[in-house]
Amino acid sequence: MLIYEGILCFRNHLYNIGHYKSFSFTIPTISVGNLTVGGTGKTPHIEWLITKLFPHYSIATLSRGYGRKSRGFLLANENTTVQKLGDEPMQMYQKFKNKIEVAVCDQRAIGIPMIAFEKPEVNLILLDDAYQHRKVKPKVNILLCNYENPFYDDELLPIGKLREYKKGANRADIVIVSKCPLNISAEDKAEITTKIKKYSDASAPIFFSTMQLGQPICFNNSFQKTPDKILGISALANNEAFKTSLAHQFNLVAFHSFPDHYSFKREDIEAIIAHAKKENAAIICTEKDKAKLVTLLQTEELDLFWYLPIEVQFLSDPAVVLNSIYQLLD
């Protein structure tokens, strides 16, 4: 741990004193990230930004494409596979492909000018999970803080889940406390705000959001009656949270957990289908996992699988959140 702390401290110090250079770009960029490892809802928040900022901007998203089987810069098109793009970028491409550009690149400082070269009409780039990527200085830096595992109560890896020191929160222009309960009290909000303000910039506004599960959608896109019994599957940073949500909303008879960004295999599919048929249950996964699963299914199996869309809902007027972003972009 002492070695990890030393490396973090030295790296951030070199950026702070200007020895390592951070690049700013003509195209405005919004970074959405966190101080911890996984589980804050970055992708749903980026999707929320897309729905609110389009069509006012011509938008591209840029991420590393964690777990993809490709290297370098890649701009998604109708022939791109989830294996080459990654599950979360593919999810965004499938949902918004007629509205935005979706790109992946190992180095965001290279990916941004590549997007500008190939798609000169783009005038806003959303950077997924770029809070620690200090080679790029975003126009707007949004920090997500998980309500159930806030960074101010956490410890550095490997003891805790922090990627860097808590004081790294001072780089945020906006802080969003994510995955809050719908009935969060004003007193709870005030206490959380006070704790975050110990580390964040005094001028950075703090907002609170929650995750809303939509109605299940069948893989074959047909309108069918919601299943009576379900078998749930997920490959997330926090599978238990998805399992709990399913149990509250459905008659959950079984659940299969896989590691985050897991590359499903055909034998996994066959085992899941066999279990579901034994239980006489439909199979429900996340929208993120659907991007990978659908490529492994045979046509006649599509009606066995469903996915649950997840949307961000702010617990205050979303117009205030948007206004804060617009002011920072000006």
Model description:
Residues 2-8 have low confidence and may be disordered. 33% of the residues lie in helices and 22% in strands. The N and C termini lie far apart (41 Å). The protein is globular and about 55 Å long. Helix 9 (287-293) links the parallel strand 12 (282-286) and strand 13. Helix 4 (87-96) packs across helix 9. It has 330 residues and is of the alpha/beta class. The protein folds into two domains: 20-212 and 313-329, P-loop containing nucleotide triphosphate hydrolases (Rossmann fold, 3-Layer(aba) Sandwich), CATH 3.40.50; 217-308, Rossmann fold (3-Layer(aba) Sandwich), CATH 3.40.50.
Describe how the helices and strands are arranged:
Elements lengths: L1 H15 L12 E6 L7 H12 L5 E5 L10 E2 L6 H4 L1 H10 L4 E4 L3 H11 L5 E5 L11 E7 L27 E5 L7 H12 L8 E8 L3 E2 L10 E6 L4 H11 L1 E7 L8 H14 L2 E5 H7 L11 E4 L1 E5 L3 H12 L1
Parallel strand pairs: 1-5, 1-6, 2-4, 2-5, 6-7, 7-8, 10-11, 10-12, 12-13
Antiparallel strand pairs: 3-4, 8-14, 9-13
Helix pairs in contact: 4-9
